[in-house]
Amino acid sequence: MGRDAILVSCNFFICRVEEIPSSRGCQYHREDLDKKKPVELKMDQALLVIHNELPGTNLTVYWNFDRCYHCLLQVLATVSQSRKAGRPGIAAVAVSTQHGSILQLNNTAEDKEVCRLEYKFGEFGNYSLLVKHVRDGVSEIACDLVVNKEPVDSNLPVGIAFLVGMVLAIVVSFLRFLLSLEDFQNWISKAINSRETDRLINSELGSPSRASDPQPEAWRRSAAPLRLRCVDTFRGMALILMVFVNYGGGKYWYFKHSSWNGLTVADLVFPWFVFIMGTSIFLSMTSILQRGCSKFRLLGKIAWRSFLLICIGIFVVNPNYCLGPLSWEKARIPGVLQRLGATYFVVAVLELLFAKPVPETCASERSCFSLLDITASWPQWLFVLILEGVWLALTFFLPVPGCPTGYLGPGGIGDGGRYRNCTGGAAGYVDRLLLGDQHLYQHPSSAVLYHTEVAYDPEGILGTINSIVMAFLGVQAGKILLYYKDQTRGILIRFAAWGCLLGLVSVALTKASENEGFIPVNKNLWSISYVTTLSSLAFLILLALYPVVDVKGLWTGAPFFYPGMNSILVYVGHEVFANYFPFQWKLGDQQSHKEHLVQNMVATALWVLIAFALYKKKVFWKI
């Protein structure tokens, strides 16, 4: 927004305010503003013009987001005193519109609060804050906020995109239904071809090739389980949402990671991917062992695959080679693929060590109706519970220099600014101690609201413990699907039970609040409440997908099914080619949510099309 546009808006406001008794015209206001540097509004900003009509009183304006928990207010502007009646001091500033704002005006000389208000500004809106005495001779002060120019509806493009997507989904579904009626034989042929393709692939991380090593008769007695499309569909949903938010999500705040406690859309995708990876580990491992692969050989494959994931993360995904060659002094060690590789190794080895054949007669045995899927895995559960105990002990009892023991906050200006360098408490301390500041993520999401200055990595060491717990809960989902494969009702009951149980645990840990609980939901920390909350949602999503996709066949899982079958290729590809055309191009207006949204949706859709083409060509990247 240029100078002329701002002056027109201010003139419009000031002339409107002539109706307010304390305002006596607008010509001199324009002159005052002409002397000031114009404010250019960017995305997610509004213009606020502060009018100080208090004679002999300079004002300091403090500001912060209402979502910034227990934060120090930051100086927004200083407004000089009114020089004479009808000629107020004026300051024009840009304020953020992403969240609600807290404004506090203090008498600069006495540092005494004059007034305080909370308001949610709208993008590109124009507002005036009038600070004045209620009437002459009265010491009471009023702060009136006036809307000069209505803001734009920045969320409208998201609503339109959602409606268009829904319409397209309905149209495609209807066309598929018509085609199935008119050409039933063709439809059957396509379904058969699809099943043939499914048999070529194992897990989303690839799987070892067929082996002829001798195995106990119990393993060779069972046929390999059929591939479950709901698992690939869920993985694809998480992956495509991950691609979209990584590309920018239209620059909307709710498509970015939460600054500290709480959840946004972006915070959902990675844990769901970890959860469904756990499900695939059990399904794939059971299939491989039934086909005759030895445990020793499978252990080597697991170790090699984990090593490759970690290396791809460190040397391919993390560095930005457009900025120059890799510098080991500043190379980031943690990362998404590194977290996946470490989690995959621990969970896969754990399941391999205690692997047992899935009972064929489970459907007819009364004991299988209850807790066989849990009791048969008691060693794994014991290990995971001990691991979680380690996380709790380190998080709440490890002494951190200069920080309170058990601190879970963001540091920076949070908690009144008392613990500026304590971001993440024990989690941040362990990473900085073992890996070093230079090898951690340098731009954590906590810097957005809390102005943190220390390096903090959301994929750090302590958080990996809870990602292992998340993957193990995914393993539990896989066991339910196999142990009760002939009992659709039993599967759905268990999914619902796990979803409700984990949800209740989350409520107890968080006290159903964002910041006041024992252990808040926090993606940066990968807190245990974050794991239970997202696992609860994952079980409920499978509760919906399994009957619709696999039992009734009402939905094939398209288009999410295709990227779900080639997830590593899509993830690595979208990271490597993020800055190249056609995934990114120069926008006409860099401050437009609409243009960013279109670009990010096109880039995401291209990866869906690439995955679809590769699926049809039977090309799958297995590592």
TrEMBL record:
The chain crosses the membrane at residues 158-179, 230-249, 269-290, 302-321, 341-359, 380-400, 461-484, 491-509, 529-548, 560-577, 597-615. Keywords: Membrane, Transmembrane, Transmembrane helix. Residues 227-356 form the Heparan-alpha-glucosaminide N-acetyltransferase catalytic domain. It comes from the Eukaryota. PANTHER family: HEPARAN-ALPHA-GLUCOSAMINIDE N-ACETYLTRANSFERASE, LD22376P. This is Heparan-alpha-glucosaminide N-acetyltransferase isoform X2. It comes from Bos indicus (Zebu).
